[in-house]
Amino acid sequence: MTIEFKVEGMSCQHCVTAVTNAIRAHDAAAQVQVDLASGRVVVDSAQPVDAMKAAIDEAGYTVTAVSNVTATGGAAR
């Protein structure tokens, strides 16, 4: 499942690493893409959305929106 999070508080490469590591601590196989400029974090993971959101929150960042949840590559809005 692919999930897109809008995240506040990320400003540097350290933030990218922290968010990526936090998500991968819950799912080592997760694919994570972080775009600092837009504050977007796209995660492809089998874990529940709430678990991925909690991982980002625990890393010290604020999830302000969740969207683009897909099951097998098709976008759901």
UniProtKB/TrEMBL annotation:
Origin species: Paraburkholderia fynbosensis
PROSITE patterns hit by this protein: HMA_1 (PS01047), HMA_2 (PS50846)
Keyword annotations from UniProtKB, A to Z: Metal-binding
GO MF annotations, alphabetized: metal ion binding
Protein name (Swiss-Prot/TrEMBL): HMA domain-containing protein
Domain HMA: from-to ranges: 1-64
